[in-house]
Inverse folding.
């Protein structure tokens, strides 16, 4: 079992506009994911979720007041704990910081669930699609 000391904290956003969810490709381009990143010292989870949505997908919006939940995953021998917010997207820019690195795709919930690998994340996307806070 991972301890708090060896668990890295991340925050993420499930970007939603109407009945669609925005997915982005991972940095290596092999998987579809939601925007997420490490919570840097001195920054909060909500702030990180908003920053990652902008940097990775060019999205601006309003977060639900509370996170919808969290999930764990492992990568390169490290465990990550991801706190996930729902982002109601108000603007999608044509250009953004990681546009050359990532693709952005608006998909319906069923397609998002097919494309996402992590079971914990899929469960949170299902909850978000039902409007659970």
């Amino acid at each position: 079992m991972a301890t708090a000391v060896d668990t890295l904290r991340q925050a993420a956003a499930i970007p939603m506009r109407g009945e669609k969810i925005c997915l982005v490709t991972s940095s290596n381009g092999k998987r579809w994911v939601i925007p997420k990143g490490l919570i840097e010292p001195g920054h909060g989870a909500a702030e990180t979720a908003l920053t990652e949505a902008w940097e990775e997908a060019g999205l601006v919006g309003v977060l639900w007041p509370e996170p919808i939940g969290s999930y764990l995953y492992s990568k390169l021998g490290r465990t990550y704990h991801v706190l996930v917010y729902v982002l109601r997207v108000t603007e999608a820019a044509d250009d953004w910081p990681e546009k050359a690195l990532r693709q952005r795709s608006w998909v319906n919930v069923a397609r998002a669930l097919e494309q996402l690998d992590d079971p914990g994340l899929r469960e949170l996307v299902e909850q978000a699609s039902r409007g659970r806070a």
Notes: The chain has a mean pLDDT of 94. The first helix runs from residue 45 to 57. The longest strand covers residues 78-92. The helical segments are 45-57, 109-115, 119-129.
